[in-house]
Design goal:
15% of the residues lie in helices and 43% in strands. By secondary structure, it is mainly β.
Length: 114
């Protein structure tokens, strides 16, 4: 079993994902919950570097966070809620990336099929 990232880092990633949702005026409650993540190792096919990947699955939403050996993080988490300002769109997911001290992020907004 791979070594899980530091709890404080995991909690910061979860908070950053929730923060991206909050910026839109939406809420996904306390999701994702760091203590509910499962972990796997992933080997980059080019560099052969081993990253630790956290997954949240089995509930209403799916999420994934990759912790790279150089300290970078990339995470995405499903939102699946109607966009508060665009009736023809919904928020599919949010993403964050960067180093723990300076995580950036954005939301993936999708228009309903017409």
């Amino acid at each position: 079993m791979p070594q899980a990232p530091d709890v404080a880092l995991g909690e910061a990633v979860c908070a950053a994902l929730r923060g991206q949702v909050s910026k839109l005026g939406l809420s996904i409650g306390d999701e994702p919950v760091w203590a509910e993540a499962t972990f796997e190792e992933a080997v980059d096919p080019f560099s052969q570097e081993v990253s630790v990947v956290a997954y949240w699955r089995g509930k209403a939403r799916f999420g994934k966070a990759t912790f790279f050996p150089d300290g970078r993080v990339f995470a995405e988490y499903q939102v699946l809620l109607v966009h508060p300002d665009k009736a023809d769109s919904y928020v599919d997911s949010v993403q964050i990336w960067g180093r723990p001290q300076q995580l950036r992020g954005e939301a993936l907004i999708v228009e309903y099929a017409k």
